[in-house]
Each structure stands twice: as C-alpha cells, then as structure tokens.
Amino acid sequence: SHYRSAINYSEDSLRESKAALERFYHALKGLPVAEPAGGEAFVERFSTAMNDDFGTPEACAVLFEMVREINRLRESDIAAAAGLAARLKQLASVLGVLQLEADDFLRAGAEGRVDAAEVEALIQARLAARAAKDWGESDRIRDQITAMGVLLEDGKGGTTWRLAD
C-alpha cells in the first residue's frame, strides 16, 4: 500500500506474501554471485513508484517482472540472469526483503520439523541409486523424503530441498 494508506493485514495476506517471497527466492536459487547488472528500465520504474508516496504496489509489480525476466534469462544467458538477480536483490533491499540466501529462506522452519542431516544423507543415497540406475530404490528414497514433508528439486547444480507447505 501507499505510505499514507491503511495496511490490509490478514492471514490470507500473510500467506500470499509468503508465496510471493518463495517465488522471488526460487528465481534467485542456484544462480552464481554477480554484481548488479542490467535492468535499467526496471530501476527507473521502481524508483518512480517509490518516489510516488512510497508506492509499494507498483514497486512490487516491477520486482515480479524482474523475476519473470530472470527466469527467462536463466535458460539462455546465466550471467545476465545472475546480474539481474543481483539488481533485484539491490532494489528489494529498499523494502527490506531478499536479505537471506535463497536456500536458507526456502529451508526456514526446518529445525524441529525435519532432521537436515538425515535429509542430506537420504539425498546422497538417492543420488547413488540414480548413478547405479537403480530407479526403484531412487523412487523409494524420494517417496521417503516426500513423506517427511520435504520437496526435492533436481537441477543442473544438483539436488536441493525445501519444506513442503
């Protein structure tokens, strides 16, 4: 909302905000560290929105557009995606968000719910089963991990995990 507007606080808005942050962090996840680069038009639009009575709805819309562009670039130009991701973090810091590493945020709340060491050990066992082409064992381990309330994400950089909602 704008600076002088009332805040619409509810459980639904909290859930929506959490989902939005997850989307941002998923876009950042797995990208190499880079200096902010590109996205000058995004910076201009973000600045204009913030200078208009702290117009966070429009500023957030710009950040979401950046996420879409990062995800698009991820397929063709990882360096450009990483530079734009750094720019996204730079702009988001004005709002006090995206201060954590992506994996840290996506695993937040795991303590007390799952044993991270056990999840990591199961992931390694699953990777070994996949390397041996033992698909049945690999699937069994994935099912075991899923039953723990953990989602696995296989990517070019390896397998990562996060808590299911």
The order of strands across the largest sheet is 1-2
The total of beta strands comes to: 2
CATH class of the largest domain: Mainly Alpha
Could you say how many structural domains there are in total? 2
CATH topology of the largest domain: Four Helix Bundle (Hemerythrin (Met), subunit A)
- At CATH level 2, the architecture of the largest domain is Up-down Bundle
Biggest sheet overview: 2 strands, antiparallel
Rounded average pLDDT: 87
Instruction: Look at the structure and name the CATH superfamily of the largest domain.
Output: Anticodon-binding domain of a subclass of class I aminoacyl-tRNA synthetases
- Enumerate the spans where pLDDT stays under 50 for 5 or more consecutive residues: none
Using only CA atoms, what is the Rg? 19 Å
The number of helices is: 7
Silhouette: globular
Q: Determine the N-to-C terminus distance.
A: 27 Å
> Helical proportion?
55-70%
Order of helices and strands: HHHHHHHEE
Strand content: 5-15%
Query: Would you tell me the structural class of the helices and strands?
Result: mainly alpha
GO biological process, one term: cysteinyl-tRNA aminoacylation
GO cellular component, one term: cytosol
Organism: Pseudomonas syringae pv. pisi str. 1704B
Main location: cytoplasm
